[in-house]
Amino acid sequence: MLVKLKDVYKIYGEGMESEVRALDGVSLEIDRGEFVAVVGQSGSGKSTMMNVLGCLDIPTRGDYLLDGTDVRELTDKELSHIRNKQIGFIFQQYNLIQNLNVLENVELPLIYQGIGADDRRDMAMEALERVGLSDRVRHKPTEMSGGQQQRVAIARAIATHPPIIMADEPTGALDSHTGHEVLGFLQRLNKEGSTVILITHDNGIAATARRVVRLADGRITEDQAQEVDWL
Amino acid sequence: MNIRQAIKMAVKSILGSKGRSMLTMLGIIIGIASVMTIVSTINGMNEQNLKQMEAMGTNRIDVSAYLYNGQNAFEALYNYCNSLGSDLVLGVTPNSNASATVVYGSKSSTAMQKNQENMWSMDGSQQNQGNVALPPNLYYGSDQYSVCNNFTLAGGRDLSAIDIKNYAQVCILGARAAQNFFNYADPVGQTMQINGLPFTVVGVYAEKDPNSNWSMDNVIVFPYSVSRLIQPGTTMNDFTVKAASAEAAVEATSRISGFLTGLTNNGKSGNGYANSNNQWQNSVNEQATMMSLVLGGIAAISLLVGGIGIMNIMLVTVTERTREIGIRRAIGAERSSIVTQFLIEAAMLCGIGGLIGMALGTVATRVAGKLLVHVDIWPSPAITVGAFLLSVLLGVVFGIYPAAKASKLQPVEALRAE
Ligand SMILES: Nc1ncnc2c1ncn2[C@@H]1O[C@H](COP(=O)(O)OP(=O)(O)O)[C@@H](O)[C@H]1O
Ligand SMILES: [Mg+2]
């Protein structure tokens, strides 16, 4: 089992009147190579779940085993290494660094891996080629459209060849055409062996996933496998 | 991530956001330059003041010696002072006014005296001294008179020990006295009548300070020995000793006091007493201490203001970058990588800004010195280095402190920052 959440809670302001249970006892298992869509309304706890899965946040209570390791036991440094090597993140707001150009943004996770300049450049260029942006590597993010920026973010996520891709509403800020393009990238990555966790509030997008996990008020209300046509 | 990569990353980050980098450097530049300029200018003014006071006669010891047997104490004092050596005492001279009528051609000090009386009587206030010839101040001096009173020769020769020994009927004119009597003609070699006796002008002093009171230059100096020709029966009790430096003045004062006490005690001169004091020195020292206190206060305040400016800039830019820190952490940066990068960035910006600030501060100090206080001022190395080190230290501390704090957040919290 690649990912295993057991009775996980994320509670903001616990014990107070305004307490929010963003995750309210979630248990979930995801296998290597799966394509899972997490759906639910806004505020249902989808992002919170992805942040916990991606080691960007720690749960209030509950166990999280990643590839068999209890994440709570890991140091901050080890968590950084997991985020760096095991997971590629794609965010709704792209989260590129504005004062670095496209190539520098894509190279960033490779720098933190300590990869030398030449190899780094090759790997970053390869990733940019895959998203069709190898001709714009010197541009700053602000000089590009939303769809292009999200492709840069995808290139950054896949540059390290991580086994897991986590995307939080990656199409949320895009028109439907570029949204489908992004979705196509994720499907291709999954076909090549990556585990993809896709978060969305859009049922249409969820319909393209082989497995759909439905969240409401921090709880899983549905967990279903389905047939898809793109495989 | 190794150091070379961290440096490269810092450079990329600095070059990638030129606006922010310029703003940060501007804070440092202005901080350093203003501290340097303010402190150096005040320092320069202070030194200028001290120099002016020295020109008027610091390092001067005023000695009074009374010998009750009516004998002249000067010769003994002169010999003693000259035996002290030039690292303590530069010269000694009587400081006694003479009173006599001075005549040259149609000009006389009696007529000048009338001028002065008329001036005062007209409306009770003194008129512009510059246009009216006033009677000269007459002094009896030793061959070291000019040294003791900071005069330099403009022409001719100074008084000599031989003049004194031979009761030579010679005199030296101050610049104003020379102008009053000789109207810019060369007085050297001319003969003046002093109380009816012929005295040859052998030298003229240079104007002491164009800005100073003219009466300083309206002087005529005679060898002190001729007092017995001009004013028989004169005794001299007041003397001036010129010390080599402020520290030497303190030492010389106590030595001379001891000498004068010994002089009265060993029976050679009968009854008498002696004292010496150095009011000039005291007031100058007091003033210097006060100035350095004021200076220290101003330096501290300007450093504080400059430091707060630098601190603000660093805090603001780094807080703005919390989201960037979140992104870097999300894609795998360790805390130490973040802190290293921000440390290098801050050190580079502060270092470059510091160098520019030092250059600008030097120029500004020179300009301020020329325009405001008309003095040639170079910033002191201590102030320059101090301002640089403090600014860089503040820049680096306040550059990495918020970064270190932000790197301790869960990445998701840093990412939420706007
Ligand atoms: N830092 C926070 N402090 C307090 N409440 C939060 C915080 N982050 C998220 N929440 C709350 O947790 C719930 C789940 O949020 P989120 O996971 O972002 O929902 P989704 O991504 O499904 O829209 C929401 O009610 C949200 O208001
Ligand atoms: Mg969300």
Give a short account of the largest sheet of chain A. Answer: 6 strands, mixed
Mean pLDDT of chain B: 82
Helices and strands of chain B, in order, run as HHEHEEEEHEHEHEHEEEHEHEHHHHH
CATH class category name of chain A: Alpha Beta
Q: Based on DSSP secondary structure assignment, what is the total number of beta strands of chain B?
A: 13
Q: Give the C-alpha Rg of chain B.
A: 34 Å
Write the layout of secondary structure elements.
The complex is a heterodimer of chains A (231) and B (418).
Chain A: E1 3-12, E2 20-30, E3 35-40, H1 46-53, E4 61-66, E5 69-70, H2 76-85, E6 87-90, H3 102-112, H4 117-130, H5 146-158, E7 164-168, H6 176-191, E8 195-200, H7 203-206, E9 211-216, E10 219-225
Parallel strand pairs in A: 3-8, 3-9, 6-7, 7-8
Antiparallel strand pairs in A: 1-2, 1-4, 4-5, 9-10
Helix pairs in contact in A: 3-4, 3-5, 4-5, 5-6
Chain B: H1 3-16, H2 18-57, E1 60-67, H3 74-83, E2 89-94, E3 96-98, E4 102-104, E5 107-108, H4 109-123, E6 137-141, H5 145-148, E7 153-156, H6 161-165, E8 170-173, H7 175-182, E9 191-194, E10 197-205, E11 219-223, H8 227-230, E12 238-243, H9 246-265, E13 272-277, H10 279-320, H11 322-330, H12 335-373, H13 381-408, H14 411-416
Parallel strand pairs in B: 6-11, 8-10
Antiparallel strand pairs in B: 1-12, 1-13, 2-12, 3-6, 4-5, 4-9, 7-10, 8-11, 9-10
Helix pairs in contact in B: 1-12, 2-10, 2-12, 2-13, 10-13, 12-13
Bound molecules: adenosine-5'-diphosphate and magnesium ion.
